[in-house]
Amino acid sequence: MIELFPPTPRDPYGIHKAIWDEFEEEPFELLKGKPLVLAAYVAGDLNAGIETTAYVEPVGVGDRLPDMPAYLERDGHVPVPLENTYQSAWASCPPDMRELVETGKLSGEEE
């Protein structure tokens, strides 16, 4: 789960906290200056007594994105190079789409 938008009135402590609160008693708190969350979850099995595990990386705007695991099985994951993937995608993005992302509008678009 990659939460790259800051908390809103609908989720004042972020989506990860809502997920976390479903399976963990210890409260989750956002770090000051790091309002965004990357989290990888390994599903537990209550019948087998296996707890759910969360690998959490708080990030701030402008931080380099860390590599994260994507769990396909309880004991196996695929490494996901988030920063390199993002940078490669951005480098191949057409100029008009970059402008839209950076400014929120396209050239010639009226305000």
Question: What's a concise summary of this model?
Answer:
With 111 residues, this protein is of the alpha+beta class. The protein is 25% helix and 24% strand. Strand 4 and strand 5 form a beta hairpin.
Summarize the SSE layout with pairings.
Elements: E1 2-3, H1 15-23, E2 36-42, E3 53-59, E4 68-73, E5 76-80, H2 82-91, H3 95-103
Antiparallel strand pairs: 1-2, 2-3, 4-5
Describe the structure.
It is a single chain. The protein has three helices and five strands; from the N terminus they run E-H-E-E-E-E-H-H. It has 111 residues and is an alpha+beta fold. The strands form two sheets. The protein has a three-stranded antiparallel sheet, with helices on one face. The protein has a two-stranded antiparallel ribbon with strand order 4-5. The longest helix has 10 residues. The mean pLDDT is 85.
